[in-house]
Amino acid sequence: MSRSLYKGPYVDEKLLKKIDGKKPADAGVIKTWARRSVISPEMVGFTFGVHNGRDHIEVLVAEEMVGHKFGEFSPTKKFHRHGGKMQKELEQKKKEAEIAAAKAAKASA
């Protein structure tokens, strides 16, 4: 749910202090744990290291990101893949079909 309009967006005060008076080129990576903080227009061009629970993921803030939260650009879960034994069998059949198609194409040429 979004924040009510009369309260305005939440921007972490410490984060604003870290970028105050600096230029994006010489600021480097600014580490932050404030995933709930909204990206404001003053932050455009800066690179933030947003913590995902284990390490900091670098996020270069662009114009399109203004209004979104830092947590949206630093996923906390890593997708491995679906499946198991059945998925491995399907992948094996697909590889065999590709090899057979390549051999057929080579033989006809």
Overview features:
109 residues, alpha+beta, 30s Ribosomal Protein S19, Chain A, 2 domains, 3-stranded mixed β-sheet, 3 strands, elongated
Oligomer: single chain
Number of helical regions:
3
Q: How many β-strand stretches?
A: 3
Summarize the main sheet. Answer: 3 strands, mixed
Descriptive notes:
This protein has 109 residues and is an alpha+beta fold. It folds into 2 domains: 78 residues, Ribosomal protein S19/S15 (30s Ribosomal Protein S19, Chain A), CATH 3.30.860.10; 30 residues. Helices cover 32% and strands 13% of the residues. The chain has a 3-stranded mixed sheet, covered by helices on one side. Strand 2 and strand 3 form a beta hairpin. The mean pLDDT is 91.
Secondary structure layout plus pairing:
Elements: H1 13-19, H2 24-27, E1 29-32, E2 47-51, E3 56-60, H3 85-108
Parallel strand pairs: 1-2
Antiparallel strand pairs: 2-3
Summarize, please.
The protein has 2 domains: 1-78, 30s Ribosomal Protein S19, Chain A (2-Layer Sandwich); 80-109.
